[in-house]
Amino acid sequence: MTKKALVSAAAGIAAWLATGCAFAAPQFSFSKPSVIAGAKLFAEHCSACHSVGSLRYNRLVELGMTEAQIKKDIMTPDGANYLQGMTPTMNMAEAKQWFGIAPPNLSHIVRAQGKTWVYTYLTSFYWDPQRPSGWNNHLFPNVAMPDILSPWGGTYAKDGTLMQPGLESQAVYHKQVAEIVDFLRYASDPSIFKRRADGPYVLGVLILLSLFAYLLKKEYWKDVHKNDKTGK
Ligand code: HEC
Fold first, then answer.
1. Domain presence at residue 13
2. pLDDT at 42
3. What is the three-class DSSP state of 54?
4. How far is C-alpha 66 from the chain's CA centre?
5. Measured in angstroms, how far is the CA atom of residue 215 from the centroid of ligand 1?
6. Same structural domain, 125 and 167
7. Which residues line ligand 1 (CB under 6 A)?
8. Residue 15 falls within a domain, yes or no?
């Protein structure tokens, strides 16, 4: 590395630190409260366009929400049915006309792409006047989705300069994006909390069964060993 390259690398790191580490690694806490927070943010910002068709609203009771809370905070789209999958507000045929592509059902997006991909996608939008929506994305070039969260996270140019600050601090904004991703991770695999809670019991039963199997084996072989000694 030349001296000049070293200096510019150091300046780059300093600038990055000064911007409050805008590219800090995502902090997923993945807990029931973070999933609930994410579900509320999703209802507020995303369910205008996206369905989460495989996740029934009533399933959220498992997270500790009451039916009344779900109806008030999560079932925001008209026509949402408590016993059915999460529906979008927008008519998909119209959405297709507007965006050129219907906003996809996000039930399995985290399984398909991974948490980090979805997080990076949501934080990689930049202002691009050449696009019909005015938005582009570093991870998903020429994406049809506008940067819905820009009023909160800020508007960035392609080179990363901040054009218009958002309403939230970077720390709060990134935490909220991580919560939305936590919710989508839960949606793609909703039995996860139950599995994790049941796991220790299942392992306990298996250990107990192994113990009995061992005692039984000892009991069976006792006579064989006795016969070994007596030479019969
Ligand atoms: C105004 C409508 C609209 C809103 C609101 C919206 N999206 Fe989208 N979204 C779209 C469209 C349209 C696409 C398809 C983009 C493409 O394929 O070019 C998309 C694509 C995506 C994708 C990529 C899916 C894939 O197939 O790879 C993800 C992830 C996503 N949106 C997440 C979100 C989240 C999370 C929110 C809320 C913070 C949100 N979207 C809000 C319209 C919207």
1. no
2. 98
3. strand
4. 22
5. 58
6. yes
7. 45-46, 48-50, 99, 101, 103-104, 106, 109, 118, 121-122, 143-146, 148-149, 180
8. no
The pLDDT value given to residue 231: 63
pLDDT band at residue 228, thresholds of 50, 70 and 90?
A: confident
pTM here is 0.86
pLDDT tens for each residue of 101-140: 999 999 999 999 999 999 999 999 999 999 999 999 999 9
Residues 59-106 pLDDT 10s = 999 999 999 999 999 999 988 999 999 999 999 999 999 999 999 999
CB 202 within 8 A of CB 122: no
In sequence order, what are the residues at sequence separation of 6 or more whose Cβ sits closer than 8 angstroms to the Cβ of residue 42?
52, 180, 183, 184
Alpha helices in 88-169 (DSSP H): 92-99, 109-113, 115-122, 150-153
- The pairs formed by 196-200 with CB atoms below 8 angstroms and a separation of 24 or more are none
Among protein residues, the one with the nearest Cα to ligand 1's atom 1 is 49
135 strand-pairing partners: 127
Which of 41, 44, 49 has the most ligand 1 atoms within 8 A of CB, as the residue to mutate? 49
Cβ atoms within 10 Å, residue 181: 27
84, containing H or E segment? none
Do residues 169 and 131 share a domain? yes
- Give the whole-angstrom CA distance, residue 187 versus residue 53: 9
Statement to judge: residues 137 and 198 lie in one domain: no
For 232, the token pair is 């019969």
Query: Is 42 in the same domain as 57?
Result: yes
Domain region containing 132: 25-190
Each residue's pLDDT tens digit, 38-62: 999 999 999 999 999 999 999 999 9
